[in-house]
Amino acid sequence: MDRRPSAPALLALAVAALVPLAGCADAMDATPEDRTFAFAGTSLNVKSHGAPADLVTADRQDVKVTRWFDTSGKVGSAKESWTLRDGVLELRAGCSGLANCDTKYRVEVPKGVAVLRDGRETDLKG
After folding, report:
1. H-helix or E-strand spanning residue 21
2. 29: helix, coil or strand?
3. How many angstroms separate the CA atoms of 2 and 68, rounded?
């Protein structure tokens, strides 16, 4: 009888050994990053793709986004982007592989701008 572990068993052991290396990411530990976008529209659709996003009105003419993005893990990669085009603010941040990510946003919108969250009206009225 062959007592060597099977290929699936070896793979499961390797994954189990790597999972503790991934750790837990926490956006509260991240250094905030800011980006401002020129904006002249009357409506802004914010798409944060599942990440928490605080939407607030501010006395400004542009849109300011603050992002807290934390990653942990040795195996994998982080992918992030933030763009504003045609009245749609796309906020994306995530990880692949055995990396772990946590993200949160704060979006400051000019007063008088109608704000949508993923295409739906929100209680926020600028």
Report:
1. helix 7-22
2. helix
3. 52
| Domain map (residue ranges) of the chain | 22-125
Q: Pick left, alpha or beta for residue 112 (phi over 0 → left; psi -120 to 50 → alpha; otherwise beta).
A: left
Neighbours of 70 (CB within 10 A): 19
Model confidence, pTM? 0.73
With tokens 């992030």, the residue in question is 80
| Residue 75 and residue 97 in contact, taking contact as beta carbons nearer than 8 Å | yes
pLDDT at 20: 46
Q: What is the C-alpha separation between 102 and 111, in angstroms, rounded?
A: 29
Render pLDDT for 87-118 as a digit per residue (tens, 0 to 9).
999 999 877 776 677 788 999 999 999 999 99
Strand 88-97 vs strand 76-85: parallel, antiparallel, or unpaired? antiparallel
